[in-house]
Amino acid sequence: MSLEWLSRFLGLVIITVFGVAVMVAAGNNWFSAGGAKSGDGDKQAAQLTASSVLVIPVSRQDIEINDRYSGLLEPLERYRLSFEIGGRIEKLGVNVDGQPLDDGDRIRKGQTIAVLDKRGMLARLEEAEALADQADKELERAVKLRQANARSVTEAEFIQRQTEFKVTQAKLKLAQKAVDDATLTAKIDGVISRRLVNMGESVAPQQLVLEVVRTDSVLLVVGVPESRITAVVDRLAEAKRQSLRPDSDQLPLGDTTFIARVTLVGKDLLGSPREPMIGAVRRVAQTADQTSGLFPVEVLLRNAGQRLRPGQIAIAELIVGRVNAYRIPITAAQFTDNRAFVFSVDGGEVPVLPPREGASYVAIRHELVPGEYFEQGKSLIVFDFPADNVVLRGQHRLVNERPVKVLTAESRDMSGDGGLIPVVRTSESDAP
């Protein structure tokens, strides 16, 4: 037992000594590596290499302030057609193909929609006509008798003849109206959205037969939150005031009309977005919707080609104002604690765009605090900016006054709200 215990003790001592040696060696390597890194960092800080950046020009310009909201297209007007009397539907109107009217068919003002069985009504009309004719003759006879001899017809009899004539005339008008009401006609040009009856069915008075919508113009109804509804109301009121000016016909359309750009969410067959349409804000609801808590705002759109259909989803950009400011792509900024940081390039006396060969350019860091800018779509709208360019790419590895190499680029507006998409013309290997 003593030899076995001694061998275990010696093994434990050897393992402990080996572990201590490894820890000492690792500690020396760590200190030496840390010293090397620190030295390298100081050397790099002293000699910063030029970083390649993509720079685009910016300038002060008039910029539209717009709010984006989505909503559904709705018909401009909706009509519910019904008979004023009850009866059995004898026939329905026909469409351009000669088929009975149905959902989706277009109708014209004055076109026959449906007809009730008139046989009983025509019989009552004939009866009313006969009674009215008899009462007319009796009254005419009484008048002649009184003219020949005033005592031949008493005053009471004459009044009774007059009353019978008026009553029969009233019944004749009612019978004629019943016959007229048995034919349901369209009051406007529109499209049938719902047909709720079939030929041969019986309907009660005021029972819904057809629903017709007017689609030569449509409404896009969007919901605006409480935080933005004041701006919308103020812009609509200003447009109305401008439209009442004596010289309103000489003012730009944007001054007298609350313009909204509307784009359908659905894409075309090739997957491309639809072309925007110009609409006008027509009305703002007085109260918020009880379900969503948003204020419904109606945008009027012309639909002469009947391409817009109620139920489609669209996005409206409501142009609520204009400012004179700088538009900077939001991808050019870095954000920390509600502050935005943007870099520009300074060349001293040498222009930055286009860059000059051999020129010395440095990056300048700009801090934007809330109140100096606001976000709109893919852009930052900056009220004042001290430079005529911004760094669009490569800004994430910059520090203030770091030397930079400016890459040339061609910029085009491809984002729909002024965002700049650069096309780089250089083959630099260190381009971002």
Would you give an account of this structure?
Helix content is 29%, strand content 36%. With 432 residues, the chain is an alpha+beta fold. It has a six-stranded mixed sheet, with no helix packed on it. Strands 2-9-12-11-10-13 form a six-stranded antiparallel β-barrel. Helix 2 runs antiparallel to helix 3. The radius of gyration is 42 Å and the shape is elongated. It starts with a helix and ends in an 8-residue tail after the last strand. Mean pLDDT is 84; it is low at 28-46 and 411-432.
* Biggest beta sheet summary: 6 strands, mixed
Beta strand %: 35-45%
Average pLDDT confidence is: 84
Low-confidence stretches: 28-46, 411-432
SSE layout and pairing:
Elements: H1 2-46, E1 51-57, E2 60-82, E3 87-92, E4 106-107, E5 112-116, H2 119-148, H3 155-181, E6 183-185, E7 190-195, E8 202-203, E9 208-224, H4 226-243, H5 253-256, E10 259-264, E11 277-284, E12 295-302, E13 313-329, E14 334-336, E15 339-346, E16 361-368, E17 373-376, E18 379-382, E19 389-393, E20 403-407, E21 409-413, E22 420-424
Parallel strand pairs: 1-20
Antiparallel strand pairs: 1-19, 2-9, 2-13, 3-5, 3-8, 4-7, 5-6, 7-9, 9-12, 10-11, 10-13, 11-12, 13-18, 14-15, 15-16, 16-20, 17-18, 21-22
Q: Which structural traits does this protein have?
A:
5 helices; 432 residues; six-stranded mixed sheet; six-stranded antiparallel beta barrel
Quick rundown:
With 432 residues, this protein is α+β, with helices and mostly antiparallel strands. Helix content is 29%, strand content 36%. The strands form 4 sheets. It has a 6-stranded mixed β-sheet, with no helix packed on it.
